[in-house]
Amino acid sequence: MEPLKPIRSAEDHRRALDAIRAAIEAEPGSAEADRLEVLAILVADYERRSAAIPPADPVAVLELAMQAQGRSQRDLAAVLGSRSRASEVLGRRRMLSAAMAERLAAAWSIPLDLLSRPYAVAGGRMARWTRRTAAAGAMVLIAFGMGGGALVAIHGQDLPEVGQLATYRPQTVLRRDASGRLLERRDFVPLDMIPAHVVKAFLAAEDRRFFDHGGTSLPAIARAAVRNIVNRGEDPEGGSTITQQVAKNLLLAAEPRSLGRKVREAILAGRIEAALSKERILEIYLNQIYFGGAAYGVAAAADTYFGKPLAALSVAEAASLAALPKAPNLYRIDLADNAGRARARRDWVLGRMASDGMITETAAVLARAEPLRQP
User: Fold this and answer.
1) Given 40, 69, 222, 361, which is the most exposed site by the fewest CB atoms within 10 A?
2) Is the pLDDT at 206 greater than 70, yes or no?
3) Rounded to 5, what percent of the chain is helix, strand, coil?
């Protein structure tokens, strides 16, 4: 197998794309699949560095924002104050004025400079050329903004709409089978009601750079994939961000594991970041994630494993919950066979919290001394 090398030239780039296309259906978890994931990241990084990205066309930016946020032409008319004005802007028969751009930037959180750049408004052949070049420019912006133009071209078609997440709220659920056995429990809790030390535990365990990245983390994915190659699939490590997990669990849940799904997941993660605030993404994640047994969401997990509301959890208990999403059946603390693994994983989370400055080293030492469950 040819060793992996940085992509420095167009020829390196072509060979890497050929390798990805030739083995795109590699068995998930295999060394080949992990190798391909690293190749995909190297390709995306090369394209990001080498692509000549055209200036954003304001109407294309506006249309992309409407798509990402699930907005209609009626919503645009409400901001601009006129249906005809909205129609003329989208049809490129009228320029976005400075006042219109300012209103849209304020109402829909679109960077003002992207809406304020000059663009052509004309009829006939010029209008058709403008629409074609705007669409092409928008696709390039999406491709390289999300990390990898060729990968988007291969896997970015017919993706689910992310606008539906703007109003998504996990339902409170208590579902049992015919015999009364609990199948699913979920209790929604707003982010501002989740204690800070609980949030910190999940950030340390799952995505320490959550507030810094744009949906994907190249270092995390590359590091995880390289380690998986070295370990030959034993104790596999994930590199997905919290945003990628939201994309996977809510928008791609029906798709089987594959490298193609990982790429689609990354594309969607970028779109989710463009459409939603970090706080909203984190709220969805913490209320949606599976914790083993019948527990979904942090509130149900706290009650299931500790018989407590979130506000009553200790730092050690929060770390135990944050240890679960990676592999709930391996780290469930209510199963005697898991005790050693669950403690080791909890203590690893506490170590990450301390090294990231989320708690003090003394707090981590005291938390490690706590039993997994209070008698």
Assistant:
1) 361
2) yes
3) 60, 5, 35
